[in-house]
Design goal:
Chains A, B: InterPro entries: Asparaginase_II (IPR010349). Chains A, B: Pfam families: Asparaginase_II. Chains A, B: This is Asparaginase. Two copies of one chain form a homodimer. In chain A, a hairpin with a 5-residue loop joins strand 11 and strand 12. Chain A is globular. The two termini of chain A are about 20 Å apart. The first copy, chain A, is α+β, with helices and mostly antiparallel strands and about 325 residues long. Chain A contains 14 helices and twelve strands. In chain A, strands 1, 2, 3, 8, 9, 10, 11 and 12 form an eight-stranded antiparallel beta sheet that branches. The interface between A and B is large, with 53 and 53 residues.
Chain lengths: ~325, ~325
């Protein structure tokens, strides 16, 4: 099936580009609330499921043993922009387990924050693995290993105890088999598994409500989502859509973007989980889709809906800062 | 009509994302040679038509008056990466007309070359309008104004003599009306007009052959395309797809990418013009489309075709440089 256009890119009054996609909204008992497009097709969730991947860090007792609060847990679920606060906190998490950045196997890249990149270059420095947007997640993996007495070397590889814990959590939470036929390697070198989009929506409804979980998992899931909602900057960075969405209604909206146009989200007050993917992998369109989707689901709150609808209309500017266009959700979404 | 998927993005063995698009290949007499998808829909060509926009620079005599050779003409047609050679040459072009970067109205942005950005920051500098990827085109506009005795202030605006010359050239070459209902503002502040994709394919077949042009225009068009093919680095920059494609067969392939997934190209030996757009605006997919399209059209040259087919399969790498996926053209394209 061909998914519908959910986001249009306007320049002047002309539609310049268009983005198709699929969206699934589920309750924790498995009831679909709203589905657009093909939600059965397997998709890689990429970084959108970092909160699920962080469950072993909490459930193993490692987070408590190292005294991790909201800030550290938010960073463990983050795709951060490599700003100084992110880098320093990732370093501090590793230090608690007696490690440093040389233990990280995620690779190094320049910060996604342009300002952070310029500042690093101006200081005559180059990025290391702490600047990798996944360094908080990897610090979480490493802390879990050290706490559990597992040799951490090779922790990114399929078959290592660390990734087996992550896979077990992913399968249990989403209810979908994570098999090797649908396994790829993520940008940070860990395995990522393609499963139906709707499974991620169901998984995040469970994460938000704890329905169907043992008490330890229910508590860990709520603690991780609460941490992200309490510290949105640490989950992303300056000017990022995830921060704007979570700050629009503190404690009421959880969102997490992933590469190639994926979002997972949860609305605890409605007991709903959301998962979406832009077919072509465009992050700009996925950001519009998630804002428009949440605006519709939280329509009862008029002030909040107005704010979210504005976030679903990001402007396109020329190099002198003049507004020359905008993205907008199509009727299918609003 | 819904365009077909022309490019798939693989992670492991799974298709992670997909890009739709349309392609038009025309002869200069208006005969369609190959069309995929909706080639009648108006699209903004963006920077893909800079060679047409540079015609007034040559036809007015300004290029000769200022002693511009292949290097300057290539830069006038460029979306450059803001590397030192680009910036210095844009400055030198302006100096020939007694101007400097303060005359540029394109706005400033950090170089698209990451290495150039880091070098600039390390030197404690910030970008100016010379680093704008369009600074060569704008230097061409300004030189044309000064040579013709036209006051250059506001040269980016619709209605200014500079943009009227550009619009006249665009209409004559493409044969399509450029009307205000289909006008938008480009990133560098000049007007851009959405016209059918096939009109750009026809236009570039004419640019390559001179068919249907007065002698002065035919000569100017060939001079501009030849300049780009002789100096591909100046048209783009280090590691860019346009450079790799033009260097694959020197003097035989002209290509120019534009924002939002557009390419225009010409194959002088076959007398063909090519125009394509990725529906969702993704440059990564447009690069695969143009390489695969040219590989098919030049299939008689086996060695060249093999090289182009490899360029149509760019790898996707993890942050440690491991190959974890690739883009590939679909059967519709190959």
């Amino acid at each position: 099936m061909t998914n519908s256009v959910l986001v249009e890119v306007l320049r002047g009054a002309v539609v310049e580009s268009a983005h198709r996609g699929a969206i699934a909204v589920f309750e924790a008992d498995g009831k679909p609330v709203w589905e657009i497009g093909d939600t059965a097709r397997p998709v890689f969730p990429r970084s959108a499921v970092k909160a699920i991947q962080a469950l072993p860090l909490v459930e193993s007792g490692a987070a408590d043993a190292y005294g991790f609060g909201n800030r550290e847990l938010a960073l463990a679920c983050a795709s951060h922009s490599g700003e100084p606060a992110h880098v320093e906190l990732a370093w501090a998490m590793l230090a608690k387990a007696g490690l440093d950045e040389t233990a990280l196997e995620c690779g190094a890249h320049w910060p996604s924050s342009h300002a952070a990149t310029v500042a690093l270059a101006r200081a005559g420095k180059a990025p290391n693995a702490l600047h990798n947007n996944c360094s908080g997640k990897h610090a979480g993996f490493l802390c879990t290993c050290v706490h559990a007495g597992i040799a951490h070397r090779g922790y990114v590889k399929s078959g290592h105890a660390s990734q087996e814990m992550v896979r077990d959590a992913m399968q249990a939470v989403t209810g979908a088999a994570h098999d090797f036929d649908h396994c790829g390697t993520d940008g940070c070198s860990i395995p990522t598994y393609a499963v139906p989009l709707r499974s991620f929506a169901l998984g995040f409804a469970r994460m938000a409500t704890g329905v169907g979980f043992e008490p330890v998992r229910a508590k860990a899931a709520k603690r991780l989502l609460s941490a992200c909602m309490a510290e949105p900057f640490l989950v992303a960075g300056t000017g990022r859509a995830d921060v704007a969405l979570m700050e629009a209604a503190p404690g009421r909206i959880f969102v997490k973007g992933g590469a190639e146009g994926v979002y997972c989200a949860a609305l605890p007050e409605l007991g709903l989980g959301i998962a979406l993917k832009c077919d072509d992998g465009a992050g700009r369109a996925a950001e519009v889709m998630v804002a428009a989707c949440i605006a519709r689901l939280l329509h009862a709150d008029k002030a909040l809906t107005a704010k979210l609808k504005e976030q679903a209309l990001p402007p396109i500017e020329s190099r002198i800062g003049a507004k020359v266009g905008a993205l907008r959700p199509t009727a299918a979404l609003s």
